[in-house]
């Protein structure tokens, strides 16, 4: 598109380019925003991946500004499968095993991140635990906010 830009650079000049770019940004006083962070409430143990946990979280309602939905971390989940979903394949569906529990995860508008899952076996995940009801069927679901290669 008309706003796109590009450049070619020899590898041996990458460090020099990076330093020059950093100097230029400092000279024009460009504010570089902090990377976004997630406020994780707790690590989610396999035995806590349950409908009972979702029911217990109901006592925190009403949720919203000032009382955010708690985010949970699942460390070292085993990736079983993933696919895109939705009418335009914009969303990502990930199935994991956490301990003895199998869990479906959904990551809205994140199909572009599916390439990060290629040949991955272990993932660390952050999201919310809830119940997905669709077509008169309800099941546990983890709504992803982010993931990374497992630790």
Keywords summarizing the entry:
single chain, mainly beta, five-stranded mixed beta barrel, 2 helices
How does this model look, in words?
There is one protein chain. The protein is mainly beta. The chain has helices at residues 14-27, 51-57, and strands spanning 40-43, 71-85, 91-98, 101-107, 122-134, 137-149. Strands 2-3-4-6-5 form a five-stranded mixed beta barrel. It is elongated and about 55 Å long. It starts with 13 loop residues before the first helix and ends with a strand.
Per-chain topology:
Blueprint: H1 14-27, E1 40-43, H2 51-57, E2 71-85, E3 91-98, E4 101-107, E5 122-134, E6 137-149
The coarse overall form would be elongated
**Termini separation (Å)?**
39 Å
Structure annotation, total helices: 2
Q: Biggest sheet, open or closed, and with what strands and sense?
A: 5 strands, mixed, barrel
Q: Give the spatial strand order of the biggest sheet.
A: 2-3-4-6-5
Element-level helix/strand string:
HEHEEEEE
Q: Tally of extended strands? A: 6
Ranges with pLDDT <50 over ≥5 residues? none
Q: Give the fraction of residues assigned to helices.
A: 10-25%
Q: Structural class, from helix and strand content? A: mainly beta
- Round the Cα radius of gyration to an integer and report it: 20 Å
Task: Give the strand content.
Answer: 35-45%
Mean of residue pLDDT values = 91
């Amino acid at each position: 598109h008309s706003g796109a830009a590009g450049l070619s650079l020899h590898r041996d000049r990458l460090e020099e380019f990076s330093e020059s770019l950093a100097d230029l940004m400092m000279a024009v006083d460009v504010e570089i925003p902090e990377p976004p962070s997630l406020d994780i409430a707790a690590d989610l143990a396999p035995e806590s991946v349950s409908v009972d946990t979702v029911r217990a979280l109901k006592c925190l309602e009403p949720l919203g500004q000032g009382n955010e939905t708690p985010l949970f971390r699942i460390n070292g989940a085993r990736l079983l499968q993933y696919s895109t979903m939705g009418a335009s394949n914009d969303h990502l569906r990930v199935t994991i095993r956490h301990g003895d529990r199998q869990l479906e995860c959904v990551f809205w508008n994140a199909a572009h991140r599916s390439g990060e899952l290629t040949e991955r076996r272990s993932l660390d995940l952050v999201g919310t635990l809830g119940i997905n009801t669709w077509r008169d069927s309800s099941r546990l679901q983890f709504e992803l906010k982010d993931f990374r290669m497992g630790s």
